[in-house]
Each structure stands twice: as C-alpha cells, then as structure tokens.
Design goal:
single chain, 346 residues, mainly alpha, two-stranded antiparallel sheet, 12 helices, 47% helix, globular
Length: 346
C-alpha cells in the first residue's frame, strides 16, 4: 500500500518496470481495477482487528478481563490505524459489504477505536498503547475538524515518542517490501521529487547511486536516474504509525489556522530539536507560513504514505494552504473494481 501511496503523494517517483506509471502523475481514478489488491488489503486489516475484538469479547468478557487485557488494547489501536489509513487514502469506501460511505466515516470509526485503546490500555497498564492512542486520535479528530480536542490529545504525546508498524524478515508477507523495491530492484527513486534540492535534512535521507564508472545508476526501466532513499535500510525496518514530532507539527498547524505564525514556528522548532536540526524563523506572510508548514509536515512524515491526504485536506481548505503540486491531480483512490463487482450495495 505504501508504494502507490508514496508515488501518488509525490514522495517517490517511478523508475521501474511495474505498471505504476499513472500514480506519480496523479492519475488515480481512471482504473479502479488497479486498486483491487490495496483496497482489499486495507479492508482486511480493518476487518481482522474488528473481528478479532468481537471474538476476544466472547472469550474474555466473563470477569471483566476484556477491559484490562493488553492484547485487546493493541487490537483497538491497530484497528484505529487501519481505519485511519482507509480514511486518508480513499475517496469513499465501504464497510463489510455495506453501502458506499464518505471517507470521513473511517475517521469516526478510528476515533472510537483509539478511545477504547486509551481506556483499555490504561486499565491494562500498557503506556505505549495509551500514548499511541492519543497520537492516532489526535490526527483523526483534526481531520474531522475537531482541532481543540485534537491538540489536547497531541499534547499527551512526548516529542521523542514513536509507535511503529512492525516488520520482519522471518517470512516475506511481513517484510518491508518498500526496502526491496528501493534497493535491490530500483523500482522507485527520489529523482523528480521535491526532495532533490534537499540534501541536508535528517528527516529525508537519500543518496545518488553511482556505478563503477562513476555514472549515475538507472532504475529498473533502464533510463530513470536512481536516487536511493535511506530512511528504511533493511526489510525488517519498521514504519512509524504515530510519533511525537508528528504531534508537534499538528499543533503547529492548529496555530497557523488560527493566524498565530510565531506559535506555529515554536512548535515546528520543537519538532526540529528532536532531529538535531537548526531552527527556522517566522515567515512574514501567510502564504510563506503555509509553504513552511507543508514542507515541515511532508519532511516529518516522509515515506509513510500520509502526504496524499495532506494535499487533499489542504486543497479543500483552499487559499494559501493549498499545495500548488496538487493542481490537476487526483487526491484519493477509488473503491476498487473488485469491491464494486461483488458488493450488492454498489
């Protein structure tokens, strides 16, 4: 899922042999059959968490064990993140074969699941799940327009905190396939992205790869320059689901939306401190402030598949917030062709 999401969001460019050429150009809606696997995988992740909770409730309910079980708390948390991903990537969606629903339905479901993760995690004494629940809930509450509760949740997440999706090389199904595609196969490249001029940002590490003769290596297509991402180096590299720096950037955006540019910069610099980076100075115009805001959030969440939704929500906000890169691009994915063929409600 991260591969097409990163391509569609402009975080990476396609330089390989796969049939992904439309995604980096922002063409997402014309071929819903191309989204069959990803829509199915995201829906499966949501269903497994939610169905798992229903089954655990039947086993653990007697004696109240369900309400203080750490595995229950984790299932709620992961169900929240699965719903958030659907909400961020889908134009509209479905739940368990039901009718078409707006993408915000997934954020509402995620809010409820994160709230339960916080509650059960607190009773079970699993502080990392509680903190991650606050981080996840902060994001979806912001996307639902509830910025006050969102920043209150975000303040519960320490700057250095990070909660990851765990990957492993034990079996291929749970390995970080993005690493293989950006190292061994050279399918995806930093070339032709906004990051090419950015060579000293700790959040966006990459390098130009040269062959033995000193020429820039090319991707799997035999012609696109291969600029290699260095954020994920091994196929067991974990990918962050929420983190403290994301929460600081979220709080910065809330300040900017209220017209408080110095307040925005204060939170951005707190996030930059975590990475040991120099501080930025406050812009003098709203347009420059939004340009800074977009850059800082994109860098903080680089290659996590989150930029596409940022472009979408800022495009909906309009004005200085809108990213010029988003013009003329599809900013969400369709319900898959497979779902439409088998779902009687569609």
């Amino acid at each position: 899922i991260l591969q097409p999401a990163n391509l569609a969001g402009g975080e990476l460019w396609h330089g390989g042999s796969y049939d992904f050429g439309t995604y980096p150009r922002g063409i997402l809606l014309q071929s819903p059959e191309d989204w069959d696997g990803e829509y199915g995988t995201m829906s499966q992740a949501r269903w497994v968490a939610e169905e798992g909770l229903r089954r655990m409730a039947g086993i653990l309910e007697e004696g109240g064990g369900f309400e203080r079980n750490p595995h229950v708390a984790r299932a709620y948390l992961l169900g929240g993140f699965a719903n958030r991903m659907l909400g961020e990537l889908q134009c509209t969606g479905t739940v368990d074969g039901g009718p078409e629903v707006p993408h915000t339905e997934y954020f509402t479901r995620a809010d409820s699941m994160f709230s339960r993760a916080i509650q059960v995690g607190g009773a079970a004494g699993v502080s990392d799940i509680v903190t991650a629940g606050y981080g996840g809930r902060a994001s979806v509450r912001a996307w639902l327009g509830n910025w006050g509760p969102a920043v209150a949740d975000a303040a519960q997440v320490p700057p250095g905190f990070q909660y990851d999706a765990i990957f492993s090389t034990n079996v291929g199904a749970v390995s970080n396939d993005l690493v293989f595609e950006t190292t061994s196969r050279k399918e995806f490249t930093v070339f032709s992205t906004m990051w090419v001029p950015v060579t000293d940002d700790a959040r966006v590490p990459w390098q130009i790869v040269y062959d033995a003769s000193g020429q820039v290596e090319v991707g799997q297509d035999g012609e696109t320059p291969f600029y290699q991402q260095l954020k994920y180096l091994d196929q067991d590299a974990d990918i962050e689901l929420t983190k403290g720096t994301e929460m600081l950037v979220l709080r910065a955006e809330e300040r900017l939306r209220g017209g408080d540019i110095p307040g925005m910069v204060g939170f951005l610099n707190q996030a930059r401190d975590v990475y040991g980076m120099d501080h930025v100075t406050a812009p003098t115009t709203t347009a420059d402030a939004w340009e800074m805001m977009r850059f800082e959030r994109y860098a903080t969440l680089w290659m996590t598949g989150r930029r596409l939704h940022d472009m979408r929500r800022w495009d909906e906000l309009g004005g200085a917030a809108a990213d010029p890169f988003a013009v003329g691009r599809d900013l969400c994915f369709p319900i898959s062709d497979e779902e439409r063929r088998v779902n009687p409600n569609l």
